[in-house]
Amino acid sequence: FLALNGLLDGKLKWRSMMLPDRYIDHGSPKDQIEEAGLTSKHIAATVLSLMGKTKDGLKLLHRNPTA
């Protein structure tokens, strides 16, 4: 609780991202990771929020390298 809500932050901002402490229904690993909020989009959103950025920052990640 303390770490997830930033109450332990000092000079380093840190959030643990882990499987929830509840049962996740059977399904494909992809579906389970999505339900747990551990996809690359979830991770990027968490990092951006810690940096004080918005989802607009993700546009840099989706540039077309061949354009």
From TrEMBL:
Single GO MF annotation: 1-deoxy-D-xylulose-5-phosphate synthase activity
Cofactor: Mg(2+)
Superkingdom: Eukaryota
GO terms of biological process kind: terpenoid biosynthetic process
Organism per entry: Litsea cubeba
Subunit structure: Homodimer.
Keyword Transferase: yes
Keywords for this protein: Thiamine pyrophosphate, Transferase
This protein's record includes keyword Transferase: yes
UniProt cross-references to Gene3D superfamilies, sorted A to Z: 3.40.50.920
UniProt protein name: 1-deoxyxylulose-5-phosphate synthase
